[in-house]
Structures are given as structure tokens and as C-alpha cells.
Amino acid sequence: MKFFKNFFHQSQRWLAKNWLKFYPQVTIIGITGSYGKTSTTEAINQVLSEKYQTLKTDLNLDTNFNLPITLLKIRPKHQKLILEYGVDHKNEMTKHLALVKPQIGILTGINPTHSDPDLLGSLANIMSEKSKLIESLPKDGLAILNWDDKNIRKMANKFKAKIIKYGFGLENKNEYDFYAEKIKVDFTGTKFTLVHKNYSSIKSIQMETGLIGRHFVQSCLAAAIIGLNQGLSWQEIKKGLSKLKPLSGRLSIEQGPLSSILINDSLRANPASTLAGLQTLADLTTKKRRIAVLGEMGELGESAEEQHRIIGEKVAQLKIDFLIAVGSLQKITAQQALKSGMPKNQIFWVTDVFEAAKVLKNLLKKDDLFYLKGSRLKHMERILLILKGKKVDCKVNSCHFYYPCQDCLLRETTKDIIKTNA
Predict the structure, then answer these.
(1) Cα 120 to Cα 60, 130, 156, 165, 271, distances in angstroms
(2) Has residue 417 got a pLDDT over 50?
């Protein structure tokens, strides 16, 4: 069976690579990084759709399968192809680029995600692997780099394509080609002023998006750069960005359990996205309490303890009333929050989602802001099911099934799953 699966996959790759040759008119845009890839892909697609026929990679597929499947969907009508290049093993980017190379590349940011020994192994290896996409760009190509990221700044001198720098202007603003200021976040979305130099007579322009969180502004900046490069007007770019809405489980505002307001960010977790989510929780105006429920961040290798400690320090600094830390690594987060000045009676450390649900049953009140975050494999959505009175039998710490628990196709064989993962 393994032989036939591999044969099918290799055949699909061969077909996809040759299928692409029939469509030289398509501009190929590639996005990589440790975080922000999906939101940047969505933002670019939405903006370019204002003028062009676009095609993008699927949200829920691994890149190894996503790229050939997407290439085989290309038709004569398509003009722009937006591809997310995810990697978590050595030489995966080389494999992806052997299939399809972009003319425009975006590097969203670098952090220790996937630095486990059986994955990329170290931050240096992550930087090396991610940088391959930008290094592959033609000399007349375009590299769009998040200049707020210190790791990207270290890598930039080896890139040959033209570089455009974007971000919040955290370093010297004169170094940036595009940056954002006057950022305001509320329950309807995010507003900001885009500032740029030497791209038109307009030097700043007001933007807004339905995405909720200041970190999404970086995705919007990258999309705006692509839009200008591909001939869109400012009005078309503004219109595209305004149409963006939160994806489920990625900082989406929902009706929470026990009449709370849920900020659902439970689909994935890495250091950058967790810090960004906590900042969003603090930014949103409320007369009620802010409660952060954090599951473990996975695949951080030797930096796992340090990264969870950083999260604990951040929680204590922000306007957050309660922290519920779930799992062994999150004990470090809770301890650091206490050391950093958060009152002891506002911190709860629990071993699993069941204990977390018990705490929340007693804690949550009407209209409280309830932020939920955790690695996808930790399936933090089980907390929501429990609080809604649903039966949850699966008690494993980590589950490698990517289905949301409420949609799990194997829910009828939960006992077998527990035995397999125990």
C-alpha cells in the first residue's frame, strides 16, 4: 500500500510540474515563514482578486500535497497563483522548489517552531530552510521581507532579488519601504495608516480590514505591496483588504460558553501567534474581565521552556485578569506570570482540558472575554465542547488527527484512539 501511495504522489508531482508549463502567463507568488503564512496568503489573494483571476493553495492541506494539487487546478483563466510553502523537515523546501519556483517571495517571520530534533532541529536550520525560497527568486524577482524580524534582517544580505521591507517600523523607520502606524483594534476589525516612500504621490493612506489583531496588519502590508507591484490602484487594494474576515479558530469572535465572548484562536499556536493573540485580547475594549486559556506550544525543541517563559512574562504585563495554563510546559508559563507580578489568585495551572473546563465553569461570567489558544494537536476545542455539555471521552494529551474534535471521523472509536495514543 505504501508503494502505491508513493507512486501516486510522485506521478501527481510529475503531472503538476508539466501542467504548469502550459501556463507561462501565470505570476507565481510564494509565501513562507514560521508564522503568518495563511493570513498573508488570504490577504494577497483577496487583494489581487479585485483585478485578476487568482488561485491559491488550500487552507487545510500539507504543502507536500497542496502544491501539486493546486498546480493541477490551473486553468487558462488564471493570472495569479498564490502558494504557501510550509516546511518542517530538512530539504523540504528544495523539494517544493523543484516543483514550482515563484517570481515573488514573501518571508513573514522566523521563530523556533519545528525545531524539534526529528524536525528541522534548530533555529539555524529553520532560517536556512526558509531562506531557500527567497534565494531561488530570479534576479528580476521581488523579495518582500518582514523587517521587524531580527532573524530575517540577518539573512537579507544573501538575497539577490530586489528587496522591499515592511513591518511596524520597530527598527529605524527610514529603513522600511512600507510600515504601519496609528493601529486601532476593535470587535469589527483593525484600522491603520499605511506609510510608504517612493511608490506614488500618496505617502500615507488609511486602511481597514475585518481581521481582528494588530499582527494581521503585517499580512495586509505584504498584500498591499503585492497589489501595487501588480498594478492595482490604492482604491482596489483598500477594497480587497476591507473584505478580509477572520478564519474560524484564527482569532475569530464567537459566542462563547456560559454567555461569554469567545476569541477563538485554538487552531494553532507558536510563540509569535500566541504573543499576538494575547495582545489582541488586551487591545479589545471591555467592561468585563479578560481570561486567557493557553495550551502548550509544540515542536519548539530546546527552546520550549524559554518560549513558554516568555509567554508567562507577557501575560503579566498585559491587561489580562486571569490565566489558565494547560499542560506540563504551560506550568512554566504560570510560574513566570507569578514571578512577573501577576497575582497568585489570578493564575491557574491545570494538567488537561478537563481540569481547565472545571475551572472555567466556576470562573466565566456573562460577557467575559475568553481567549482560547493552543497547538492544534492539543485540541483545545474540547474545552468548549465540555462547557457546552457535550460528551468528550478522548483524554489523550496530544492527538495527531487534524479533525476538530466535534467533526472527528473516528469519534465512534474513541477508546481505540485512547489506547493508541496513551
Answers:
(1) 21, 11, 21, 26, 17
(2) no
